[in-house]
Every structure is written in C-alpha cells, then in structure tokens.
C-alpha cells in the first residue's frame, strides 16, 4: 500500500495534471501564421525570421539596442495630475492606469534616455504601445517635452520611436493640448540647430501623427508599419470608396513621398548612426564603435541556406 501511495499515484497524477507553460513561449506571426519560439524572435530583434514581419519591440529593449553597450541614463520625468477629469467608462481611468503600469512596469507610455550612439551623445524617446496603446496624455506630453528640452540643453540630437493609437480620450482636451506643446518643443530644438529624427513603427496614428511624429528632419519607417491620422476603415466609411492596396503602409507612404526611407530593424542602428554623424558634422570613422548589446541573429538567412 505504501508503494502505491508514494510511487504509483504521484506518477499517475503527474500525467493527468496539465503543465503550465508561459503564454508567450510561442508567438504566431500575424502575417504568415508561422509559429516562432520566443527566444528566436528576441534574438532576431523581434522580427519574424521567414516572413520578415516586424513585431512590436519592448520599449526598454529599444533603448538598450540603440545606445552603446546598452547603457543609458533614464531621464526623470515630471509628475502630472492623475485622472484630472475623474473619467469613467467601463472602468475607472485610475484603474486602467494601474493595470497598464502593472503590465508594462512603466509609469506611462513614454521612456526617455540619454547616452551615446557610436560615441555620439544622443537623447532618445520610445513610445510604448503596450501602455494603453501608446496614447498621448499629459504624462506622455511632458515626457516628450522634457526629452526635447534636455536634448536642446545638452546640445544633442533627438531620436523618437513613435508608436501610438492617438490622443488619450480619458484626458479629453488636456490630451489634445499636448499636440501644440510638443510642436513648440520640436521647433525650439530645430532653432538650436540640432537634428530630430523620427522612427515610425507599427502603428503610428491619430494626434501623434498630427504633431511631433511628422515634424522630423528625417522620417524613417519600419517595413509594413501603418502610419496615418485616421485608420483605413474609418476613411473608407467616410468617403465611401475602396482604398488602394497597402494604403497607409510603409511602402505606400514611401512611394508617395510621406517618409524618407524604409529601414529594416536589423539595419536601423547603423543607419541612425550614419545619419546623425552626417547631420552633426562628426566623422563616424573616428567615433568609438562598441558592439551593440545584442546583435540580431541572421536566423532567416541560416534557415533559407539550410533549405
């Protein structure tokens, strides 16, 4: 009886018990349906190896892969009023903020840091779509303005990685006020003669596109990214016409002159370094060039070669 209780029953129980696995162990490509192991996707810069689809990249990883050695100083950001309109729809706005902060580990949708890119001092901001759709509220507006003002004070270029669904409706007019505020901050940076480069990622829409995201000296877009003010479905319903294939996607925007270049994520860091050294008049050849923290592995090329 003792042998049955201590050996047989635990083994049977272990066979019948469902093993818990992480939710993100395997990730499905939205474009091809391909299932990709999470570690392979991360090693490839969150780009699906076979299809080349660019998944959303965590905000902190954006900064780590941008700056030399993954080292940067996170800028302290001003505190703003929480829920100034006492807004509530299906749930309280304060509850939504708590959920977003728990999910992402960030205070709001913008991270700002300063460091060096191939030896060139740089200030950069990343918009995190995972935090309430990267929506633009008072905290995000303050973060952008703080980043731009810091770049102007330090005399560094400013790089913005944009990803947003637009203004944050829970803050109403206070959210819309961030559009002119950030526009003024961008103008001040340009008056100081400092470069401002915007990297448009999927998606970048709404009030963000109508303000600081389309005011760069150079606009870079990742392959396949959706960029526009209103979404294609809303436009079709408004004009009652069928839109062209690929409308508002990166390739369509490049063909129609809305952006300057499409750059795959694996080539983004060296492209930014080259552009910023040209715009600042510094020679990239004499700048220190430490290896990036995690160079994307050429998974796709290796698999194609194997096939």
Give a quick account of the main beta sheet: strands, pairing sense, barrel closure: 7 strands, mixed
- The name of the CATH architecture of the largest domain is Alpha-Beta Complex
Q: Could you give me the name of the CATH homologous superfamily of the largest domain?
A: 2-enoyl-CoA Hydratase, Chain A, domain 1
Count the helices. How many? 12
Question: Within the largest sheet, what's the order of strands?
Answer: 3-4-5-6-7-8-9
Q: Using the coordinates shown, work out and report the CATH topology of the largest domain.
A: 2-enoyl-CoA Hydratase, Chain A, domain 1
Average predicted local confidence, pLDDT: 88
Succession of helices and strands: HEEHHEHEEHEHHEHEHHEHH
The fraction of residues assigned to DSSP E strands is 5-15%
Gyration radius from CA atoms, angstroms: 22 Å
Termini separation comes to: 56 Å
CATH class of the largest domain: Alpha Beta
User: How many beta-strand runs?
Assistant: 9
Helix content: 25-40%
Structure, explained:
This protein has 307 residues and is an alpha/beta fold. It folds into two domains: 25-55, no CATH class; 59-306, Alpha-Beta Complex (2-enoyl-CoA Hydratase, Chain A, domain 1). Helices cover 38% and strands 15% of the residues. The protein has helices at 2-16, 38-43, 59-66, 93-104, 138-154, 172-176, 178-191, 206-209, 232-239, 250-255, 268-280, 299-306; strands at residues 26-28, 35-37, 73-74, 110-117, 120-127, 158-164, 196-204, 218-221, 261-262. The protein has a seven-stranded mixed beta sheet with strand order 3-4-5-6-7-8-9, with helices on both faces. It has a two-stranded antiparallel sheet with strand order 1-2. Helix 5 packs parallel to helix 7. The termini are far apart.
């Amino acid at each position: 009886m003792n042998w049955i209780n201590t050996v047989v029953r635990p083994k049977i129980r272990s066979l019948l018990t469902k093993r818990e696995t992480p939710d993100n162990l395997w990730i499905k490509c939205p474009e091809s349906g391909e299932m990709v192991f999470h570690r392979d996707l991360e090693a490839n810069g969150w780009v699906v190896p076979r299809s080349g689809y660019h998944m959303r990249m965590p905000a902190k990883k954006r900064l780590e892969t941008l700056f030399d050695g993954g080292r940067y100083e996170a800028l302290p950001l001003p505190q703003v009023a929480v829920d100034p309109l006492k807004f509530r729809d299906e749930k309280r706005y304060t509850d939504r903020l708590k959920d977003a902060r728990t999910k992402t580990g960030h205070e709001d949708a913008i991270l700002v840091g300063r460091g060096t890119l191939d030896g060139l001092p740089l200030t950069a901001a990343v918009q995190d779509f995972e935090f309430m759709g990267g929506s633009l509220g008072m905290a995000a507006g303050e973060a952008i303005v703080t980043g731009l003002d810091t770049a102007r004070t330090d005399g560094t270029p400013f790089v913005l990685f944009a990803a947003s669904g637009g203004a944050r409706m829970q803050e109403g007019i206070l959210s819309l006020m961030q559009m002119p505020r950030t526009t003024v901050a961008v103008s001040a940076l340009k008056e100081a003669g400092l470069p401002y480069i915007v990297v448009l990622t999927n998606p970048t829409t709404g009030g963000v596109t109508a303000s600081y995201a389309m005011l760069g000296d150079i606009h870079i877009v990742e392959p396949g990214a959706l960029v526009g003010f209103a979404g294609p479905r809303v436009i079709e319903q408004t004009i009652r016409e069928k839109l062209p294939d690929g409308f508002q996607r990166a390739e369509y925007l490049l063909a129609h002159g809305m952006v300057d270049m499409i750059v795959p994520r694996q080539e983004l860091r060296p492209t930014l370094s080259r552009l910023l050294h040209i715009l600042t008049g510094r020679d990239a050849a004499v700048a220190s060039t430490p290896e990036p923290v995690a160079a994307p592995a050429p998974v796709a090329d290796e698999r194609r070669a194997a096939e």
